[in-house]
């Protein structure tokens, strides 16, 4: 019969770098057991993996970045005269300190950053160990410390639509934000000016984007998703529009992985504004943003 092994945390909260994880390893045994050792282990690492093919060959792209690995022994067979764990109910307290510079937990398509708490019964040679596991959520406290992130930013792009001998006046789009550093849950005004000098009706979209880059074995994979998006009315041909739109940074579902704390997973944010032009390539511009969760 398998032992009843459980992890009980003192708090089911989200932990931060530098904070302490406390709890107990609980074990119920109904008869004496010939165990070698009982321990608790807390470890953190980032892991990236995908498989890529080229012609007839393929390879696994893997990157493992360990952050820490702490072990707390709770019981050893040398503590018992006969080398066995007597029957009974056991409650072993444990405590670990998360290192101060580790990145936030993260789950992605090609990789993750995880902090795993493992309770283990070491049974000895030729026998399976008994494990119980729990994921520990860790969130970095990221502040806006660079004063440049509090300054307004404006960008302008343009495009001429038409063919070699039949071109119109350009489409000129400018985008401005009051600053580029924002807290999760914060809203801000996005100003868009569009001078449509073409002979086509166009439309605009503004999207708060998340881009994740996974790096392994000298290669990379990139994915993106939209956190917030708005679409404007059409702008008629040879007309100018000035628009002010409110963009909201979500309170949840935002992954803040500081670029200096993880080498194989990078998360960046930007506001992307696109002018959709019929029968032509769209006109787009982006403004990089920094998101924070600690004031």
TrEMBL record:
GO biological process, one term: protein transport
Coiled-coil zones: none
Source organism superkingdom: Eukaryota
InterPro entries linked: Arrestin-like_C, Arrestin-like_N, Arrestin_C-like, Arrestin_domain-protein, Ig_E-set
Family annotation (Gene3D superfamilies): 2.60.40.640
A Pfam cross-reference name: Arrestin_C
Location of the Arrestin C-terminal-like domain: 167-294
Gene Ontology cellular component terms for the protein in this record: cytoplasm
Family per record: Belongs to the arrestin family.
Name the UniProt record assigns to this protein: Arrestin domain-containing protein 4
Organism: Geodia barretti (Barrett's horny sponge)
């Amino acid at each position: 019969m398998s032992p009843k092994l459980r992890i009980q945390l003192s708090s089911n909260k989200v932990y931060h770098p530098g904070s302490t994880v406390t709890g107990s390893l609980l074990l119920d045994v109904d008869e004496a057991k010939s165990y070698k050792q009982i321990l608790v282990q807390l470890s953190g690492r980032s892991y990236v993996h995908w498989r890529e093919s080229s012609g007839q060959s393929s390879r696994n792209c893997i990157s493992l970045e360990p952050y820490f690995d702490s072990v707390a022994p709770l019981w050893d067979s040398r503590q018992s005269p006969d080398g066995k764990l007597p029957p009974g109910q056991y409650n072993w307290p444990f405590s670990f300190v998360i290192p101060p510079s580790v990145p936030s937990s993260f789950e992605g398509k090609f990789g993750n950053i995880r902090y795993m708490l493992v309770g283990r019964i070491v049974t000895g040679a030729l026998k399976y160990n008994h494990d119980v596991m729990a994921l520990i959520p860790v969130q970095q406290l990221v502040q806006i410390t660079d004063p440049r992130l509090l300054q307004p930013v404006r960008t302008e792009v343009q495009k001429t639509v038409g063919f070699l001998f039949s071109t119109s006046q350009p489409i000129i789009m400018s985008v401005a934000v009051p600053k580029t550093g924002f807290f999760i849950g914060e809203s801000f005004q996005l100003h868009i000016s569009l001078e449509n000098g073409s002979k086509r009706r166009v439309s605009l979209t503004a999207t708060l984007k998340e881009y994740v880059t996974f790096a392994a074995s000298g290669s990379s994979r990139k994915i993106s998703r939209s956190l917030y998006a708005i679409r404007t009315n059409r702008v008629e041909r040879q007309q100018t529009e000035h628009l002010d739109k409110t963009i909201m940074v979500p309170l949840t579902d935002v992954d803040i992985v500081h670029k200096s704390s993880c080498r194989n997973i990078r998360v960046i944010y930007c506001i992307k504004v696109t002018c959709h032009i019929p029968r032509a390539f769209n006109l787009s511009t982006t403004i990089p943003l920094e998101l924070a969760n600690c004031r």
